[in-house]
Amino acid sequence: MEARNPELAKELDATLRARHELGTEYEPALIESFLEKVEQRLDATVDRRVRRHLAERRMSEARGGARPERLGENFGERYGLAIITLVLAVPLSAISVVNAGIEGLFVTWGGIVGVNAVHAFRGRSLGRREKATAGAGSDWED
User: What 3 state SS string does 37-48 have?
Assistant: First the structure.
């Protein structure tokens, strides 16, 4: 096993050695102590990422441009709904065919396609609206 963080790997090793030496009666305290260290490490990482994100946003706003979209940044948001609707499409299709026949199937798939289309175009229209309002309220224009 290759550790991504050598400090945490050392902490885990020390915790496991302490458990072996102290016995199982100290196991909950040792686990809690190790988890606190992991939580501190995660908090520090999240804080660092948030500060970097805010600094990138401020730099982009100071330059007057829109924030650049990083590849894969909104992967979950963009494709999550599509995946969920496709998973739910099977039982919804079966229910609609049993209860309303082929017309129900068409209505169900029309709804699935409609929800996904609205979600897909919502991001594009918001991006256009932000670009349109970015230059309108400039303090530098007369």
Answer: HHHHHHHHHHHH
For the stretch 50-85, pLDDT in tens is 889 888 888 888 887 655 555 445 666 667 777 888
CB 83 within 8 A of CB 76: no
* DSSP line for 56-107: HHHHHHHHTSPPPPPTTTTHHHHHHHHHHHHHHHHHHHHHHHHHHHHHHHHH
Core vs surface per residue 12-27: b (16+ CB within 10 A) or e: eeebeebbeeeeeeee
Closest by CA to 113, choosing from 79, 80, 77, 82, is: 82
pLDDT at 142: 37
Estimate the crossing angle of helix 6-22 against helix 27-63, to 10 degrees: 170
pLDDT in tens, 3-22: 567 887 888 888 888 888 88
Give me the count of residues in the chain.
142
pLDDT at 138: 40
